[in-house]
Amino acid sequence: MSRTAFINARLIDPASGYDQMGGLLVENGVIADLGPTLFNDGLPDGAEVVDCNGHVLSPGLIDCRVFTGEPGAEHRETLALASKAAAAGGVTTMIVMPNTNPVIDDVALVDFIERRARDTGIVNVHTMAALTKGLAGTEMTEFGLLIEAGAVGFTDGVKAVANAQVMRRALSYAAHLNALIVQHAEEPTLATGVMNESELSGRLGLAGIPAIAETIMIERDLRLLEVTGGRYHVSQISCEASVDIIRRAKARGLRVTCGVSAAHLQLNENDVRSYRTFFKLSPPLRSEQDRKALVAGVADGTIDVIVSSHDPQDTEVKRRPFAEANFGAIGLETLLPAGLALVHSGDLSLERLLAALTYGPSDLLGLGRGRLATGLPADLVLIDTDVPWKLDPAKLKSISKNTPFEDRLFQGRAIRTMVGGDTVYVQGEER
Question: Residue 32: helix, strand or coil by DSSP?
Fold first, then answer.
């Protein structure tokens, strides 16, 4: 029997509101017991002892928007390296998007990703299958068969489903299966620019993407949702108007949820002034007023999950003029530190941050994880919330280094990650 005893830990389970100093015992890959008096009578025989020194022990993070290069673009990133980056960021479960080559739109490819992740990865990996065949936006995939194969949701990733009839049919069909439909909310004929449409975009001479490209798509889909009664999730929102729309829709009882990226909670359009292409994201970074509204949306629960939107891009497609460079930034290793910055600034409580990174995404996708509870898999992250450090892109696990947080000073990070009872990362140690 394998045993690990975590002692002197600040145990935080955001799902139940539990927050106490104590210990936690892992046996054979699951949480066997936890509590403030757990080891008062001594440690179990043969257990590996981890002294947490008062640091936070939390359920492992769940990142439900991760792009990888495998299959088809392994030069950008493989599942194995994405897993290492996830573990270093305290992420124990990642949900990969279907925007690969070939597109993950049939059972065989879902099975390939699941098997490949088991063979080469060190964290849990689940797949969102394509909502439409070939991401073409015209013909739905076989939802039922894909769910049986392991798909946890349906999305066209960075492509919006612009055809209203296709979206209506998808929501209606998915409602019978209780499947989750995930939309990248950008109306494509309006989202033809490269940054937020504003006075700043005009001064920089860059074509803008208006916020209405996002809000029009969300409003349309919510009207369809009212008719179909399905489950609808906006993968990322980026502006104040979207927060208000989602808040009102939830008040009406619609089954709608949404996410936001850690980058959009920390950065705004002013970061684009340097024409640094690592700040070129989809949806684009918007105004400071929008950023503050997004943070408030996380704080009050309107925004359900925080994602990394990890999207590795190589230098050939990023080292270009801003207008010509690809969208996207990596984020698995900065997801937690960027969130902790909001805790230190007083904008978010630590419990609310961890809720949006643990049981929030778990409940959304039906994963049965994201909690400190006996009998559940021992997916855990030990967090030093106060340690100061500077992000050095050369030390990131990802092959691609396109981080918007280059040379950023952070306070707090994951220092140990456990997946299924196995320690897969210890800060400062190579594994």
Answer: strand
